[in-house]
């Protein structure tokens, strides 16, 4: 039987103390990776690393992805704890939803900075390490919102669409160096944040999904594993929709 898909690989995942990021970290660890959990909440990052198996498997580090020095420190911590980064997952994100009329400039800037600048920091700095080794995979987290645009999310939709363009441009720059860059666009995924939606909003979204259910974080983690592993060795610059068929 084939061995674990990510055996002895070092994976760095931002926003990985909970939700989709933690599910990805958990799946990667199960497939043999050493995982570095980056999160703005240092305590939560360290707790997540402990749940993943402790020092031999995972390491938790505080990281504000909008600050390049923080992202570099996260990558340096990976090299110190395990080995230079093989897999980078840029997952950290926030929401500051409001209609354009009510959205503040600060709310717009915060979302653009965390999602778009944060992904750029992670992609750029991880690629600088990967190019020295002639290999590496980068997985960037977009959203269905970046494809269709959602009312009340001009900031989030713009950022998530930007991640698609950035990923494609980076893929073209890095392919000859042996580095692959791909993106995932989740649809409605069952998390603490989405389950806090008003019932009417949840039901309306469910009505748009041909498969008739929300996705689970484990289903995003499986796609991230595919893109991070050699199973997708001839794929770069692609965007995989994980939406249950919503707005196909």
Automatic annotation (TrEMBL):
Entries under InterPro entries matching the protein: KR_dom (IPR057326), NAD(P)-bd_dom_sf (IPR036291), Sc_DH/Rdtase_CS (IPR020904), SDR_fam (IPR002347)
Keywords linked to the UniProt accession: Oxidoreductase
SUPFAM superfamilies listed in its UniProt record: NAD(P)-binding Rossmann-fold domains (SSF51735)
Gene name tied to this protein: fabG
Highest taxon in the source lineage: Bacteria
Pfam family, one: adh_short_C2
EC number: 1.1.1.100
Residue span, Ketoreductase domain: 9-192
Protein name: 3-oxoacyl-ACP reductase FabG
GO molecular function, one term: 3-oxoacyl-[acyl-carrier-protein] reductase (NADPH) activity
PANTHER family: 3-OXOACYL-[ACYL-CARRIER-PROTEIN] REDUCTASE, CHLOROPLASTIC (PTHR42760:SF40), SHORT-CHAIN DEHYDROGENASES/REDUCTASES FAMILY MEMBER (PTHR42760)
Keyword Metal-binding: no
